[in-house]
Amino acid sequence: MKRFIGSIFLLVLFSSLSLGQNGTRLVGFDAQSMGRGGTSIGTFDSPELMMTNPAGISFLSRSTLNADISLMFPALHFKNGINDADGDKSTFPLPAISYVNKYADSKLSWGVGMFTTGGMGADFNLEHALYRNSDGSYNLQKYHSKLAEMQGGLTVAYQINNQLSVGASLHLVYSMVEFEMPYSLDPSIMKGTAMPGMTFGQMFAAPPASGGFGYDEVTASAKMSDLTAYGFNGKIGIAYKASEKLSFGLNYTLPSSLNYTGGKAVMDMTQQFNDAFGKAVSGYMSANPTATQAQAQAAVMGNFSAMGIDLSKGVKANYKMELELAFPQSIGIGASYQANDCLKLAMDVEWLNWASAFDKMTLKLTDGDNANINTMLGNSGSFNLDFPMNWKNSVIVKVGGEYKASNALTLRLGYAYGSNPVPASTIIPILPAIVENHITAGASYKVSEPLTIHAAVEMVLNNSLTSENPSVIANEYNGSTSELATTLIHVSCSYAF
User: Fold this and answer.
1) pLDDT tens digits along 251-266
2) Is residue 311 assigned to a domain?
3) Which of 204, 203, 202, 147 shows the shortest CA–CA distance to 177?
4) N or C: which end of the chain has fewer CB within 10 A?
């Protein structure tokens, strides 16, 4: 059963990776609410409430089935000292389906749904200072990321009286992760002994005059794939109708920690080692002017052999991999006001605790199969790496309204602002979740008494962020600029029973 559910989620996730609209999370989950800026915590009119305020389903007038599809069109750009490049253009479908059941003359309501909740990803082909061809030209490197999350499950709400309801959702979470890029670390990661009194890290970091290579970072071509995780997420909510015109909502989403397993990682230090080998050969020839290049190469190979490095085995290793990552808790409040028979206004405010969730990613690598890399790292092929993220807490403010133009047609406008959680110290082009301003417009048309079609357009305005110099991640990002803008089209269909 678990494998079957995973297969269904994988099928959707691989076709629905999104660039999250606040951090890794979408601003809204159906076309109806997105037309008015994503407001829904205090507006009780859609099965989407299972994701935003479970208690609100008590105040739906009828049992309702809702199917939603959103199409996302991100536009990415990255610029540093040697790159000025756009990311690959892609279209991402984001599906969701939900159903709420209302019992006649009962205070109990329940719902079940599956939602694409967010993620992030990017694809670039970029130049890197280390990766050059023999003629000095750059050998373009692949920069790729994919983080997708989907969740679904059961929601139950109980209407205490005509004005007040409480509710909760329990969701199964499924997520997957992929990364591919040049991955740079401080040379101190290389703890193996190169010679008495000197580690490989010290040798790679020491200036040439002291017999080292002078690197302040070492870089490997890294590819991490097949990482998947299951977990659970809980939400609780309170819905309160102060009057027929005014309503309020409060929600809380629990944090969730995911352990991604079954992954594979490839770490290839060939380019870094070739560069170091070339420096060693040049250094030998400078110290021994009569030596030929062949003699210098043989001498350097002998030196590495004495350190326990067999160059015939190369410096490319395969690992099994796990990854630990958390998703944030959040608190939200919302309100809705029916100003007159035609006009409704709404507002939501949410706080997301990114600082506790996206502090770092912990990478666990085991069963490394290259003795050379194990020797340099000073381990048996198993070690942990912490990838720093250092995200900040975020606040999202959503405002919107809808106007009933006729019995069949409703028009909507909205705006959402979500403060950027990504700090300048860790921004990189494949984790560009930095957008802030969203402008939305939408409409609903009642085709028949039970059937309504909703549509919305969301314009996510371009935002840029320049990295600190130095970057916490790698030298290539020092003073670099990442940009992201997104357009989304949302369409949903609601059928009331």
Assistant:
1) 999 999 999 999 999 9
2) no
3) 147
4) N
